[in-house]
Design a protein that fits this description.
Blueprint: H1 3-20, H2 25-34, H3 41-48, H4 52-62, H5 76-100, H6 112-133, H7 139-147, H8 150-158, H9 160-169, H10 178-185, H11 190-200, H12 205-213, H13 227-239, H14 255-263, H15 265-286
Length: 288
């Protein structure tokens, strides 16, 4: 199958998703507003007020143990000013995604709750890696982690019968990546779907590329702190804590990343020791 056919099939899925109107209009509007440097704080506040549920989640986040504020924040403008636009963007994306993960009845092969918590775990681990291992801001790494498997849930929304076949066909003994099953049955895969929708949402290019390449085999040491690498490492680490998409699914590491972890084993050991506690905190905020 030609690459162009995979992209075309992915675009057809996204067109059907728009027709289903599963994404909240307020969330998609806010995501695009954040990419516009001219948007004012007042404009954000006006749009956020249109979604009472989003208001509650914003205030819940800023008043959560993650921030440990001495005084309670009660206004939208104060909350936005405190957490910043990057965290606001991440909250809005999380809000939009949670809407996609709802209303799944048959979960024998794929649990949307399990998939959601996998994405949350990868997001938190990715942020920890960016901040602790590489000493850089981690908000974009979190964003890449939370959306890295968005293509899976879109496929389940738009082509549930075909996607169920993908899940049923997957076998850990085959030693095949899930994208291979997707391409055989759906004629596209979740990395391509995710790359297109994150582009439509005007998320950072680095995030778009992270979604597109997180299953690629990486070969260069310079790629170790790229988003595809960080998501791949996170996928591997959270799988060891059973935060997987499907049962018995293990994260796959490129050879260069195995060397990178070995060379920084003390730092990664400390990170993995702290990871369960961070994920436990997150379940209270991000649980469905």
């Amino acid at each position: 199958m030609f690459k162009g056919d995979s992209i075309k099939n992915a675009q057809l899925m996204l067109n059907k998703l728009k027709e289903m109107k599963t994404l909240p209009s307020v969330a998609t509007r806010l995501i695009k507003m954040i990419s516009d440097d001219k948007t004012t704080l007042e404009e954000f506040e006006h749009v956020i007020k249109m979604d009472p549920t989003l208001v509650l989640r914003l205030l819940r986040l800023v008043n959560s143990p993650f921030y440990a504020l001495r005084t309670r924040v009660t206004s939208i403008s104060e909350a936005i000013a405190f957490i910043g636009l990057d965290n606001l963007r991440n909250l809005i994306v999380v809000d939009a995604l949670k809407n996609l993960f709802k209303d799944k009845i048959d979960e024998q092969y794929l649990s949307r709750k399990r998939l959601w918590m996998h994405c949350v775990a990868v997001a938190i681990c990715s942020q920890m890696i960016m901040e602790r291992i590489f000493g850089q801001k981690g908000e974009d790494a979190f964003l890449c982690g939370i959306v890295h498997d968005i293509g899976l849930i879109i496929a389940d929304q738009v082509m549930p019968d075909e996607f169920l076949k993908v899940c049923m066909a997957w076998n850990p003994k085959d030693n095949k990546n899930i994208t291979q099953y997707e391409n055989d049955i759906l004629h596209t895969d979740h990395t391509i779907i995710g790359h297109i929708i994150t582009g439509d949402w005007k998320l950072p290019i680095s995030v778009q590329n992270g979604v597109k390449q997180h299953h690629d085999v990486l070969s260069s040491e310079q790629e170790n702190k790229s988003f595809p690498a960080i998501v791949q490492i996170s996928d591997y680490l959270v799988a060891r804590l059973n935060y997987t998409v499907l049962h018995q699914m293990k994260g796959e590491l490129s050879p260069s990343l195995m060397i990178h972890i070995r060379d920084n084993i003390k730092e990664y050991k400390a990170l993995t020791e702290d990871l369960p506690e961070e994920l436990s905190k997150a379940e209270d905020i991000y649980s469905m």
